[in-house]
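Morning run. Coffee first, then this:
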Amino acid sequence: MFDGPPSPAETRAPKGLKVAGVVALIVAGAVVVAGSVSRASETATAQSWSDARAIPTVHLVAATSPSAADALTLPGTMQAWNGARLFARVGGYLHAWYKDIGAQVPAGAELGLIDTPELDQQIVQARADLASARANASLARSTANRWNDLLSTASVSKQEADEKNGDLAAKTAAVQGAAANLDRLLAQKAFATVRAPFAGVVTARTADIGDLVGPGATNQQPLFAVADVHKIRVYVSVPQAYSARMTPGVTAKLTVPDYPGRSFPATIIGNSGAIDPQSGTFQVQLVADNPGGVLKPGGYAQIAFDNAAGQANAVQIPSSALLFRAQGTEVAMVGPGAHVRMQKIVVGNDLGSMVEVASGLNVHDQVVDSPPDSIAQGELVRIGDKDHG
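And here it is:
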C-alpha cells in the first residue's frame, strides 16, 4: 500500500553530520590559507637571497707608502775583478804543474811546464839556418868588396860589381829572415812555461803530468784559471723603469747566501747604456771590496739599491688591484652608500707583486683587491674583510 511522501522531519539531515561538514570546510580553508602564506614567505625569502647574491662582495686593501723594506732588490752574478783561463800556446806534453787550486800566486808565477820536443827540433834547425845564412852573407860581403875594389881600377864592369852587391843584399836579408824565424820559435818556447798573468788565486787546474796539451790536443781546454778577487764585479739586470736611476756612484748593499746576516757595500761603476730588447732590462755593473776573499766569483748575490725605494709622494698597491681599461689604468674604490667609484691612476715602477702608483692615490686610500673585470662606476657592492689580500 502507498503511504504517501515522507514528512519534512523524516528528510532533515542528522545534526552531527552537518557540524562535521562545517568543520571540514573550515579546516580545508585553513590549509589553503596556510599553504598560500608559506609559499609567499618562501618566495620572499628566495627573492631576498637572490637579491643578496646579486650584490658582489669585494675586499679592500689600503695604499701604503714605500719604505726601506721596499727597496729594489735584484739578483746579481759575481765575477772576479780580473779573470783568465790559461791555454797552452804550444803543443806538447805537460811536464809538471807547480800550483793547484786555491794557491795564491803573484804576477808571473810559474804554474806549469810543457815539454815541446817538436818545437825544440825546429829551434835547432832555425839556429843552423841562421848560421848558414850568416856564412853566405859573409862570403857575399867579401866578394862584393873585392869587386868594388876592382871596379875602381876598371878591371871589372859596373854590371858585374852591381851583381855582387845585389847578392850581398839578398844574403843579408836571408840572415835577417833566419834570425826572425829563430826569434819566433824562441818566443813560442817561452810559452812552454805557463805563468800567472796577474796576482790572484788559482781557481782551476785541468791537466795532469803527461797530458797532451796545446794545439795538437784533441779536446783543448784551459790548463789553469786564475782570478784576481781583491775586488768583485757584480752584474745586475735592472728593469727599464729604474734605468734612469742607475748612474755611476749609486750605492747598494750586497748579500750572499753563504754569509747570512752580513752585507757588503757596493757601488755602480758603469752600465750597458742600452736596454736588452729580449728581456727589457738594463745591465748594471757594480764593484765591491772583497776582504778576505769571502765573495766567490761566479756566485749568486742579492743587490738592494739604496735609492730605489720609490718616488716622492708615490704609494704602493698590490698588482692584483689594477684594471686595464680602454681609457687607461684604473682602480676601483668604494664611495658613499657602498657604490663603486672608478679612479684613474699613473703607474710608476713595477715591483712584482706590488706596483708603485705615481699619481691618483694617497696613502691609506682603500682600493678593491682583485676586482671582477665587469665592475663598473656606481655599482652597488658589499664590503668583505678589509684585511684580505
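The chain is about 30% helix and 35% strand. Good start to the day.
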